[in-house]
Design a protein that fits this description.
Jelly Rolls, binds calcium ion, globular, eight-stranded antiparallel beta sheet
Length: 338
């Protein structure tokens, strides 16, 4: 990818603008999460009135039990406020209306964090850029209109990105040289595809150095580093339903498992365990979301993922079991609603 400075700067600016709009939209959209319950539900705030002001004023202003997403909430003054966040979520934007809206996941080694409800730059319903919400702030881009994934609203209100399996995919900047193990999580809905396809892929093209998280022949979850690979249970990576898929490879500092040990998980349950050599420290220049670079294997690989992607979290290191649970809990709680 060319890396001229001004388009990148413009892209970041556009991203920030879009991000602020997204946050605003979300705040507006989520506010009705405090539905105006009927009078029968209005009894709750009474015992909270003592000490917070004139009796009756508080309950009248809140009007209904305070319920905020991922939060313990209470009526104070004229509004519901967050008392504390529940589970792996935080109130990063300081706005009580959307509750604890941000996933609270480990920061160390967080390399990519794509979510379909934030950082999506779309024109005409097609995604030209997807801004990574990790501290790296990378942007995955697609200049060709026909190869842009779409956005698809889901019945629970969250959008997902839709990849057509033909040519849709997004390119990431060069990098991804230093991986001490890896951890990959994705919230996806796969559509039927008998061939291999990538979801997140780092490589130097035909030259190799490839690291792939994907769905391969036989409906398996697949992790690959160069010639070493691990497949999950046949048809374990099922189609047409929301799945949380996880791949965690122990790094050199791991004490719980030998470095290189890989666990594949589907919906929080172990699907397979094996050994894959740790990635070599090589800068990688062909890096993708929604596809891989195996274009020379047309009999085996369709290259392009067919289905929906709601979120991707990637660490350039292995995670311990507590960290793994924290990320999976966040993703499952956010995306469980279908
Ligand atoms: Ca908030
Ligand atoms: Ca297309």
């Amino acid at each position: 990818m060319p890396s001229s400075a001004s388009p990148a700067a413009a892209s970041i600016l556009i991203s920030l603008l879009a991000l602020s709009c997204t946050v605003d939209d979300r705040a507006v959209a989520v506010t009705p999460a405090m539905p105006g319950h009927d009078a029968s539900s209005g009894a709750l705030p009474d015992d909270r009135d003592s000490g917070t002001g004139p009796a009756g004023a508080v309950s009248a202003s809140c009007g209904a039990p305070c319920e905020l997403p991922h939060a313990s909430a209470a009526c104070a003054g004229s509004a519901c406020v967050i008392q504390s966040c529940i589970g792996p979520f935080s109130d990063a934007n300081g706005q009580p209306e959307d509750g604890c809206e941000t996933g609270d996941i480990p920061e160390s080694g967080l390399g990519l964090w794509f979510m379909a409800d934030r950082g999506v730059i779309a024109q005409g319903g097609l995604v030209s850029a997807w801004v990574d919400q990790s501290p790296n702030g990378l942007t995955a881009t697609q200049p060709e209109v026909a190869a842009r994934p779409g956005t698809l609203a889901q019945s629970d209100g969250l959008p997902m990105l839709s990849f057509d399996g033909s040519d849709d995919g997004l390119a990431l900047p060069s990098g991804f040289a230093e991986l001490d193990g890896a951890a990959f999580f994705a919230l996806v809905v796969a559509r039927p595809n008998p061939l291999c396809a990538g979801i997140l892929h780092f490589s130097n093209g035909a030259g190799g150095d490839d690291i792939e998280f994907g769905r391969h022949q036989g409906g398996v979850l697949h992790y690959e580093v160069g010639a070493a690979q691990l497949d999950g249970t046949p048809e374990g990576f099922a189609t047409d339903r929301r799945l949380l898929i996880s791949v965690v490879q122990a790094g050199s500092a791991s004490v719980a498992a030998a470095p290189g040990t890989v666990e594949l998980r589907i919906d929080g349950v172990r699907d397979a365990v094996g050994f894959v050599a740790l990635p070599a420290p090589v800068e990688r220049h062909e890096n993708y979301v929604g596809r891989n670079s195996y274009v020379r294997q047309p009999a085996d690989c369709s290259v392009y993922f067919r289905g929906l992607i709601g979120e991707i979290v990637f660490y350039a290191r292995g995670l311990d079991s507590a960290e793994l649970a924290r990320v999976e809990t966040y993703l499952r709680e956010k995306w469980q609603r279908l």
